[in-house]
Amino acid sequence: MTLPMTVDHILALAPVVPVLIIEDAADAIPLARALTRGGLFALEVTLRTPAALEAIRAIAGEVEDAVVGAGTVTSAAARQAVANAGARFAVSPGLIAGERIEGPIPLLPGIATATELMAGLDHGFTAFKLFPASVVGGVSLLKALASPFPQAVFCPTGGIDAAKAPDYLKEPNVACIGGSWVAPRDAVAAGDWDRITELARAAAALPRARPAPAILT
Fold it and tell me: Which residues carry out catalysis?
């Protein structure tokens, strides 16, 4: 997809960003195609397996509709490495020391507290991953942060499933949510791409309170 490569526009592509742990790079292309067929376009491939970088390269090179990103990016070097592999955005579980909004690809840093949020804002970020969302306060924390930090937008991730997703997406400061339920490990292992497409289609249809940036409407 040819779209402005800002975090805001990437997060606006769909209500859910699949969080993918890919064990076998051979699964990357059919998995990405199954998800994009269902309407989920921004895909976060986490750097938790040896196959991750190869999977990112494969998706970037072969799945035209996918906007592939990398998750579990924890250093400046990793941000550069995933950019070199073809990732179009990076996601970190926390704030990376010394990293600012400027960089090889857009970065969505993780925060869990107001103090971390203020540090991120000082470094030029306005979009954040709330992580681990279900542990640090979830919807209640998002509500509490909305008034003192109206400029901040969130992609809550961690412990969110299909049942909990609608409550998060009702919050005006939530652009989208991250979740792994749209690509269950058993479905990936079985090559049940139709099941994954159906899960993606249901996730893509979830309503959200936050409007998309004007360029996408």
Answer: 44, 129
